[in-house]
Amino acid sequence: MSERGALRTRLQLLAREIAKFGAVGAIGFVVNAIVFNLCMHVAHLAVVRSGVIATAVAIATNYVGNRYWTYRDTDSGRRSRELMLFLLFSGIGLVIENGVLALSHYGFGYTSTVADNVAKNVVGLGLGTVFRFWSYRTWVFRALPAREAVQTAESFLGDAPQPYARNNSGS
């Protein structure tokens, strides 16, 4: 395969990964926004506390979506390590997301519902999402090593019947 063809294939795979990550993230965004507003307006919790609770619920939703759909073909042999790293990087994303909210609400004095939602669910979530995408694909949902992937594929091929094998018996 030419370098240009290889680059095109890599870009197509990256675009597919970003689309899946985005779809999972969109579901997480809806969960996050609903829980955030319920905590603030129904449970009457403080704004940052509401943000942290909402982000934690969205993190759980996103783990399931990313593990079993976006990155389902990656190495899952060390699931406890994967989950630990996912929670670590999600926690950093939570701090980014809710840090923007705290800065906007308490630092700059933008305390309206619209301002809180924009700070948390647009600016903070946007920054947190870029960080999460990079960290998840780099550290958490790692691709299978090439040798393992080839051996796995060969094991499937070795067990498969050969429907088009030639019969050398003369018939």
Automatic annotation (TrEMBL):
The keyword Transmembrane applies. It is a multi-pass membrane protein. The chain crosses the membrane at residues 21-40, 46-64, 85-106, 118-135. It is found in: Membrane. Its main location: membrane. It comes from the Bacteria. The keyword Transmembrane helix applies. InterPro entries: GtrA_CellWall_Glycosyl, GtrA_DPMS_TM. Residues 20-141 form the GtrA/DPMS transmembrane domain. Keywords: Membrane, Transmembrane, Transmembrane helix. Belongs to the GtrA family. This is GtrA family protein. It comes from Streptomyces noboritoensis.
